[in-house]
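Need Efflux RND transporter periplasmic adaptor subunit's 3D structure for a figure. Predict it.
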Amino acid sequence: MKVETVRDSDGNRLPITGRVRIEQRADLSFEGSGRIASIAVDVGDTVRRGQTLARLDPEPAQLKLQQARADVSAAKAQKAERELNFRQQQALFDDRVISPATLAAARAAYLSANEQLDSAKATEAMASRAVRTSAIVSPFNGRIVARSVQPFVDVTAGQSVLQIEGAEKAEVVGMLPAALVTKLKPGDVASAYTNANPTRIVSIRLESLSSRLENGALVQAIFRPVDANSELRSGEAVLITLPTAQARSPSVPVTALIPQTQSKQASVFVYDSGTAKVSRREVTPETVENGRVLVHDGLAVGETVVVAGAAFLVDGQEVRLYQPATHIGRDKAL
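Structure prediction for Efflux RND transporter periplasmic adaptor subunit:
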């Protein structure tokens, strides 16, 4: 029978992958479709709030505005004509010259003309807005980080043209196992580093946790550097090591657990070196990481559990430990 001493999970927890992004960021696009006439900036350019970054060909929007204004003028004339006719019909009705049906028809025509004028004015307002929004204007001070299209290309409404990021407030976004979220709270400080330079460690503070599960098991967490001058770059992938105090759950190999089909509990056999006997112990598994199971309760660090052959044991059974033939194997067995 093989056994292993229960260890703290701190040394077994894999770092969590995160990505750096800038808090203030935006995908910029045109509100309407058209052909791009000019793009005044490129990747890496610094821009200021209110600066014009790109323009659509203005002619189609201007022509639609002219047409809309002409439609408004025509609708106004039609309204005036039908209003005059309605007033005349009203006078004739008062003199009992025409029937109520004729007056009702004149009134309906007048009301219809009013609605057509309102519709024409709304179309004119939309056309005027299309002229105003035929340019992309920077929403804040920042830097252009991506350009998706070139001038003289036709784009659709909402198609990304430029991406802009602000100059401050980098943040690190990571997806944490749901089992760990209950142990974290805003304000906890973790560490971040890159594979390329693991010696450059940046302290990051947990700002917020999402209330929604992603893929049924992950929770989005947002961290911010403790030092505002940490020089984290947007888009950079980092490895997040959670606070040591938050990773104190005991861990055992997966082979040590005996699942229970009727509950979320599981069992392990704990070995007592004084009596050379094993006792069955119920535990609550949390999650599996790197071939090991984090145990919420039921075990303490330093206890010895059976890691091979547990399914064939009974509570209180006297056992004998496996003795490997070589010193190397013996070191691995315990």
